[in-house]
Amino acid sequence: MPEVPEVEALREFLDGHLVGKEIVRVLPLTVNVLKTYDPPLSALEGSTVTSVARFGKYLDIVAADAGLHLAVHLARAGWLRWKDTFPPAPPRPGKGPLALRVVLAEGDGFDLTEAGTTKRLAVHLVRDPSDVPGIERLGPDPLDPSFDRDALARLLDGERRQIKGALRDQRLIAGIGNAYSDEILHAAKMSPFKPVKNLTEEEITLLYDAMRATLTEAIERSRGVAAGRLKAEKKSGLRVHGRKGEPCPVCGDTIREVSFSDSALQYCPTCQTGGKPLADRRLSRLLK
Question: Which residues constitute the domain of residue 66?
C-alpha cells in the first residue's frame, strides 16, 4: 500500500505535470471506484487543475475554478500511471485493472489502476476535502512542521495498544502503514508488540526521531522518480519490511516474520526483541 513517502512523491510528480492544465474527460471504468455522486464527475470537465495536495494517504487534485476536489485513496493495490498519450478508442469498462482515466486538453493524463480481485481503490469528488469521511477522521501528518516530539507524546498518552497498531492507526497519525511502521520500529530498536503505555520518555524521543528520519529519507529517495518507478524505489529502500529470511543490514541477524490473517510484519530479533524470535503473534507474549 502506498504510504506517506510514495503519496507525497506522487503529489510532487502531479504538481509538476497537472497544475495549470485543463481536464477534458474523466472516465470511471469500474462500478465501485467512485464513492460520491454529487457533484458528478462531468463537473470536472472543462476545469483547470490549480494545485495538488496530500492528506495522509489521500491525494487531493484541486480544481479551484470549479470549486472541486478529486480525492484519491489508492488502497492496498491501487496505483497512478501517467500517460503522455492515450489510444484513440476509449477503454472498455470492467476489463483489466483500469479503474478511472483522466484526460487533459493536451492529450496527456493519468490512469488509476488496481490489481487483484479485492477492489478498495476509492475516488471522491467533493467541494471540500473534509467531506470525505476518511480525510475528516485523519490524525496529524507526521511530517507537518508543527508535529514535534511533544505532540507525539500527547497523542500516545493513555494509549493501551501495542506500538505497531498505534502507528498504523490513521486516526492517530496520518499516512503510516504496515511497511513504514516496520521500518520505524526497526530504526527505533523497538518490538512491534511493545505496549505504548510502557514507553519511557527517552523511548518516545527515539520513536519520534526514527519516524521523522525514516519518512524523510524515503521521500528524498523518491523525489524526482517517475510515478511508474515509485513502487520499485520503495521496495529497494526498505531494510526489514518484506525481507523475511534476509540478513539485517544493521546486525546481520536473520529478519523474521509474524503473519496475520491479511498482512504480515517483519522485524530483527537482535535489534528489536532482545534476540527473542516471535514465532506466532497469537502465541507470543508481549515483549517489554
Answer: 4-136
Tell me the pLDDT tens digit for each residue of 133-163: 999 999 999 999 999 999 999 999 999 999 9
What lies within 8 Å, CB to CB, of 11 at 6+ separation is 52, 53, 54, 59
pLDDT attached to residue 280: 62
Residue 170 lies in a domain: yes
Residues 104 and 157 in one domain: no
Cis, bond preceding 39 (omega within 30 deg of 0):
yes
178 and 222 housed in the same domain: yes
Give the 3-state DSSP-derived string for 15-43, with helices as H, strands as E and coil as C.
Answer: HHHCCCCEEEEEEECCCCCECCCCCCHHH
**Statement to judge: residues 15 and 107 lie in one domain:** yes
**Higher confidence at residue 280 or residue 171?**
171
CB 54 within 8 Å of CB 74: no
Residue 71: closest CA among 87, 53, 88, 89: 53
Mean pLDDT for all residues in the chain: 92
Torsion of CA 126, 55, 6, 184, to 10 degrees: -150
Angstrom distances, CA of residue 165 to CA of 120, 128, 177, 196? 21, 29, 9, 10
pTM: 0.91
Alpha helices in the chain (DSSP H): 4-17, 133-136, 149-156, 163-168, 178-188, 201-222, 230-237, 269-272
**Edge-to-edge strands, sheet with 78-83:** 23-28, 98-104, 109-114, 78-83
The grid coordinates listed for 220 are 528524498
Q: Which residues pair with 34 in a beta bridge?
A: 123
Q: What is the pLDDT of residue 33?
A: 94
Spatial distance between the Cα atoms of 231 and 242, rounded to a whole number of angstroms? 13
**Hey, what's the cell of 159?**
494509549
What CATH number should be reported for the domain holding residue 116?
3.20.190.10
